[in-house]
TrEMBL record:
This is Aspartyl/glutamyl-tRNA(Asn/Gln) amidotransferase subunit B. The gene is gatB. The keyword ATP-binding applies. Transmembrane segments: none annotated. Keywords: ATP-binding, Ligase, Nucleotide-binding, Protein biosynthesis, Transferase. Belongs to the GatB/GatE family. GatB subfamily. GO terms for molecular function: asparaginyl-tRNA synthase (glutamine-hydrolyzing) activity; ATP binding; glutaminyl-tRNA synthase (glutamine-hydrolyzing) activity; transferase activity.
Amino acid sequence: MAYDDVVRAYEPVLGLETHVELGTASKMFCSCSTVFGGEPNTQVCPVCLALPGALPVVNGTAVESAIRLGLALNCSVASWCRFARKNYFYPDMPKNYQISQYDEPLCTDGHLDVTVESADGPREFRIGIERVHMEEDTGKTAHVGGATGRIHGADYSIVDYNRAGIPLLEIVTKPIEGAGELAPEVARAYVRELRDLARALGISDVRMEEGSLRCDVNVSLMPVGGDEWGTRSETKNVNSLRSVDRAVRHEMERQAGVLEAGQRVVQETRHFQEDSGSTVSGRSKEEAQDYRYFPDPDLVPVAPSAEWVEELRATLPELPAAKRVRIQSEWQLSDEELRDLVNADAIDLVAATVDAGAPPAEARKWWLNELSRRATETEVPLSGLPITSAQVARVVALVEEGTLTNKLARQVVDGVLNGEGEPDDVVEARGLKVLSDDSALGAAVDTAIADNPDAAEKIRGGKVAAAGALVGAVMKATGGQADAGRARELILERLGVS
């Protein structure tokens, strides 16, 4: 069913369950490393492999991270909570249950405000937070053979347990109503704001492409004017902001088509297909799942004192929403300019470049233009480019002090991105300094005058604007390294024009 027809007939109800993989040095219940990309099954021990007699111990830094995120989300922090065992067959979890939290989560009843653009201007939505709870991640299963990469049709499966036991925070929203046609944008804005919040707190690198931030997208429809939610679907492990948007949009269109055909929406998990932007059925959830939760007998309860919670509250940094307001005021940005920074995911990069000494306008120009283009060409996030904010600030400084032109500066950026070292190293190795001394420029100026007699004659006759052609010839002859201003002065001097 076409999207415009969907929103005329139905009201979407959303629910988002987001998993944030914490950036702790060790796992949730043992001391194994959490470094991404290790050789398979090398970051494991008796505890995370669930060998008999091995006992888990709670990671204190993970608890701190959970409390800090809960406070940033305006949640209440429980004075006492405990872990539970969630039981069902996990092929990628050695002990065949997951240590999680059930009826006693650490943080509850918060909210996060997001802003999206509508036809009538910016609209703010308050997303209610049901709970933030701690748990452990599962291992990673790869299905070998077959065309889809899924278990159906595969020849065999292999499991890497390095990820099993890594600390996770699950953030569950309350039902999100009233978004209407903006539902995909609201979902995307919420996940982006949550990602930026976790990044600002320093609790996770939240790299969706590496799985350290994953979102389960729940969607249901009810007729406009109705009061009963429809049957929901749950699209699992959506791993990019664009995909969150597309998953919501597709499920709204798919479910509306099912309902308009007089059929029934099935409650099930679904999988998002990046290539087509569609979802496919996973497993039915028509029957209530009995996970047989019970308190984990090997773990003591977590009981954060009010004093400790307040100490952690005092460590909260400037949060993303407040930072945007401050930056817009300090840099005198229009709403559109700020939106461009947000959409490019460039605020932190530009702010760090400014902190390193670059003027805001120059920092924005480099990240939003040249570097955004490079990121698009190489299909990596802007923050994934192999160049730091400090290096960009140094390139800006070299242009401002006259060592580089903008054209030469782009070559320096090329060198840094290619791994040739710091900006100054690239300038030296490639010989990219601007030529500004008269001895170096003189020969190029004389050649330009000799090769362009008509332009030279016009200048002698008082048409000083014709000097631009000769300056261009000098720039070409010097590979763009000439100081254009000094070259122009020398041309006029040679031709006797003051």
